[in-house]
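job 3f2a | input accepted
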Amino acid sequence: MTTLSLTRPRVLARTGLYTVLGANVALVTVLFADAGPSADPLISIGRLFGMFGALLMAFQLVLIARLSWLDRRLGMDRLTSLHRWTGFGVLWLLLGHMVFIVFGYANLSDTGPVDELVTLATTVEGILQAIVAFVLILFVGAASARFARRKLAYETWHFIHLYTYLAVVLAFSHQIFEGSSFVGNPFARAYWWTLWGGALGAVLLGRVILPLWRNFRHRLRVAAVVPESDQVVSVYVTGRNLDQLPAKAGQFFIWRFLTKGRWWAANPFSLSAAPDGKSLRLTVKALGDGSASLRHIKPGTRVFAEGPYGAFTTMHQTKQNALLIAGGVGITPIRALLEEIRGHVVLFYRVNKHDDAVLLQELDELARSRGAMLHLLAGPVNAQDAHGNQLLSAKNVAGLAPDVWDRDVFVCGPPPMTNAVLRSLRELGVPRDQIHAERFSLAS
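job 3f2a | predicted structure (444 res):
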């Protein structure tokens, strides 16, 4: 099988997304032109910005709908990144929409922009909803900025993001009342209803219907809780018909353990063993109150799991052999991949000290059973080998895996480690299609 055919899932999904978006941009431009010019050029520019902003907002909903077909091919990392950058586009387009519209009408009425904004908000139906929607989008955008995201708990950030749906409803109601391409044009009305209905339907399907159906079907429960070390614990989950759950090694679920104090907390944890149709296993390090409390979960506890998610799977393997690189508890999806991945495997496990290497005995046994090579790279952040090279430098990677150019490379660990490995692989000239990275901050 050729490299091209093996990489087609990701290329197909990316091409499909951009093609659909491009076609809609063209159609919205046609609808704008068909509506004709406004009384002031600034109003026309504002209208165009508003229409493109509405289109991007609908596209954003599709990106976060967690549709299985897209997620398996692109991964939540890429979809979330694209969603984030699209969000900046929505913000600037809606800001431009508001500014140009207000200044345009201010020119016509010969008043100041602030007075005109107040007049529009108090006299024109749908304008106040649009202003509230814009404020909500600003609020969500501020909470999503990197400095804010680092300080917010996952649950808090997730709750704030729910206001996006209220903003969408308010923005659409504004479009119904005031959209020039909507009012009086049956085709335009059908298009926008279909666009928004499809986007919201995708969210409903991926975020509500499918998770509810899978949890009703599989009835997940905690089977056992096994301490791996003082700070690391493995949780075994069983249920009905798990052989029909479409989970792959390297993927993760968003887990809720339905106890009195934890039912509201949702955390993304990777599978730490390949699914066998009988049980699922996650292995978690105590990095916060939520993950630390898993040690005290009792067998029999009901579990609500959303997923499986992630493109960090053998679906994207393009070569016969593989190099797996893990850092810290990023070993969990790598440990699962070691069971499923094809061909000869070399595994680098990067830890600060030997005692941090969780699941090491399992890894050693599994590596020996399948003829893989396991390298434990222990030492502080700036540790060097005998030749003065950083442990994950390009020279060290090539020294431990001399045929790295003929392997797929799967990388999972904390962002600084992952970024360092990606730099080394770029320095070595490993083709991008052979590099697969999962961000530890999202999926572990």
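job 3f2a | Confidence is low (pLDDT under 50) at residues 1-7, 440-444.
job 3f2a | closed
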